[in-house]
Amino acid sequence: MSLFVPRFDDTVLVRDADAEVVGGDPAGIRLLADSSASGGALSTVRVTLAEGADGARPHVHHRSAEMFYLLDGVAEVLSGDEVVTAERGDLIIVPPDRPHAFAAAPGSGADLLIVITPGVERFEYFRHLQRVRLGELTPESLLEVQERYDNHFLRSEVWEDRRR
Q: Least CB-packed of 10, 59, 63, 141 within 10 Å?
């Protein structure tokens, strides 16, 4: 086991009104703290999903674990070959190298706090996603940045069957 000790000097405080928001309806992403703000300890965002909306398609992180905390609503989270339904107050932590995805459950919205640790600079990834949504970049452009953001897409029949 290795011990990672983050190095940063100041308390990180992100006021709600100051947080950058990308996306919107049906999926809004509030950028809270990137890896550089926490000395590499974590990256964190808040994702708000409209009823039944997709959050992230199946992918894997090789260098980080990902935590999902349900602030409100109901979400479906793929972890490996299992889809877990999480409700307000539930916590799910997906280890590195485990395929995962998330979405609001059918008939419900979801509000999630998501933390990746150790942190990866990910704010630019979410801005990249926004440019894809706006048609400024192609969806295929995400394949070119998978390694940089440790976000490697894959297929999951379990997820595809559940989300039909």
A: 10
Task: In whole angstroms, give the CA distance from residue 125 to residue 130.
Answer: 9
The 10s digit of each residue's pLDDT in 82-101 is 999 999 999 999 999 999 99
- The pLDDT tens digits of the residues spanning 45-74 come to 999 999 999 999 999 999 999 999 999 999
SS3 letters across the chain: CCCCCCCCCCCCCCCHHHCEEEECCCEEEEEEECHHHHCCCCEEEEEEECCCCEEEEEEECCCCEEEEEEEEEEEEEEECCEEEEEECCCEEEECCCCCEEEEECCCCCEEEEEEEECCCCCHHHHHHHHHHHCCCCCHHHHHHHCCCCCCEECCCHHHHHHHC
φ, ψ for residue 68, nearest 5 deg: -120, 120
Q: How far apart are CA 2 and CA 27, in angstroms?
A: 36
Asked if 44 and 13 touch (Cβ cutoff 8 Å), the reply is: no
The structure's pTM equals 0.93
